[in-house]
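Continuing the batch. This is chain 6 of the set; chains 1 through 5 are on the previous pages. Same settings as before, nothing changed between runs. Recording input and output for traceability.
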Amino acid sequence: MVVALALAGPVRLAGQTEAAEIGRLLAAAYHPWSARPEIGEELKPLAAMYAARGVGPLWLAGAVPSPAAEEALAILAAADDDGLVPADYDAADLAAVARQMAEVQGTPEERGRFDLLLSLDLLRYLDDLDRGRVRPNPIQRPGPGVRPGLGEEIARAAEADTVVALAAAIEPQLVQYGNLKRFLPRLRELAGDTSLVAPPRGRTVRPGDRYDGLPALVRLLTALGDLPPGAADTLTRYGGPVADAVRRFQSRHGIEPDGILWPLTQEALRVPLSWRVRQVELAMERLRWLPPLTGRALAVNIPAFHLYGFDSTGLVGGSQVEMRVVVGRALDTRTPMLLEDMQYVEFRPYWNIPRSIIVKETVPALRRWPKYLQWNDMELVGAKGVALGDRVTSGDIERLARGELGVRQRPGPGNALGLIKFVFPNRADVYMHATPSTQLFARTRRDFSHGCIRVQDPVGLAEWVLRDEGGWSRDRIVAAMEGDRTLRVALARPIPVSIFYTTVVASSEGAVRFYADIYGNDQHLDQALKALQGTPAAGLRTLSGRN
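Output for chain 6:
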C-alpha cells in the first residue's frame, strides 16, 4: 500500500470528518490500507480505544501526526528487533503516509484512515508481542480475543506520550527472551556477510589432515567467536587452534566435542546463517507463548535435553538448579510442550504402565514369556486399582489386550521411574522422574523415553522443589527414597512447569548454543508464521479527494 495524499485547498482541522471515517471503517470491520484488512477480534478493543473520544482521532495533533504517533511508528518499524515482521503491521506504508501528512496534511478522510490504521497495527503488534502470533498454540493461555484492556491501555499511552513505555512493559520479561533479542542483530550482521562461505562437504577430517576447506572454516569460526582472530594464520593443515575452535563449535551445537570434522559436524557448519537467524526468531515466538512467570518455576527445553529451575522470572537465566534430562523419542513418543503446575512429589512410586505401552510391548512380551511380569517386578491391576498378582493366564493376557486389566510395576530400585517422581497433572500424563538407566545421561542426544522426562539428579531436584515445604533435608529425601513405602508429598505452593521447545539458547554472558530440531517443530512453526503474513494492500495510488 502506497498512498499519495491529496494536495491543494485549505486544510481543515482534525475533527468530525476524521471521526466519521473512523466510525465508517469500524462499522465495516475492514481497512483497505492494511496488509490484513479484515478487522476481527480487534474490533472490540479498537472501539474501546476511540469510545472516550467520540471516535475522534488518537494520533493527530491538528492535522499532522502527534509525537505519540511518531513513537508508535518507530515501534512498528523496529518490529524485527523482536523477530516479528514490520510489513505485517504496515510499518513502511504508515511511515510514508506520515511523512506526506507532515507536508501536505491530506484530506480528513485520509487522516481518519491513517489514524485508525495506526491504532489497528499497534494493537496487533502489542498483542503479538504479548502472546505470540500462532494461536492456538501448544501453550495457549486462557481467554479469547485480544489481551483484555489492551485497547484502553493504548489510548491512555497515546494521550500521555508513553507508548514506548507501554511496549517495553508488554514485551516478555524473561531473561532468555532478552538474551536472544540482544544476540539477534549480531547474527543478522553475520548472515549478511557474503565473505562467510560454508566449508565444503567431504570426507571426515581429523587433526593433522590436509583440508581444502581450511580458509573458509577459519573465517567462519573466527566470525562466530569460536576461534580468536589471527590464531590460525600460519596453519597449513587442520588441527591446533582450529581443532580447538571446532570443539567449541561442536559443544555449542549439541555435538560430541572431539574436534573431528565428522559428517554431522560438517552439516552443522554448513547450516546457513540465515536459518540460524530464523531459529532465534522462532525461539522468541515460542517464548511469547508463555505467560508472565513470578516466583519459582521449572523449565525443560526439549531439544537442549536440559532442565532449569529458577527462583524468579527468568527461564534459562540465573537458574538455581539445572541438569540433563532424557525426553521422548522423536520417532514415536514425543514429549509435548505444555505449561502446568507441579502439585506433588511421590517417593517410591508405582509405575502404572500406559495403555499404549501395554499394547505395543507388554502383551507381546507376555505371549512370548508368561513370566515377564515376575521378571520385571510387575503385577496385574483390576478394577479400582486392585492388585491381582504377577501370575498370568492366557485369559488374563487376552483381557489385558482388550483393556479390561492394567499393569503396574512395583516400587523399588528397578522401577522404570526410579525412586521418585514429580507430578504436574496434564492430559498427556507426562511427568518427571528418576531412572535406573543413568548411563543415557552421558549421551549428547537424549531422546529415549516414552514421553516422560527422566532427570539426571532427582535428589537435587527434590531438594529444590521441597525447599519451602519444611524439614525436607537431603538426608530425609534419600531416606524416603530408600524407605519401605510409597509416600506422596503435596506442595503447599504449586510450582509452574514449562516444557518448551527452542533450538537456540543464549546465556546472559553472550554464549549461544544451537540444537538439532529433533521433532521438526521449527520447520512447522516457520511455515505457520509465513502463512499468517499479510499481503501488502494495493491501496489507492492517487487519491481524488480534496480538502
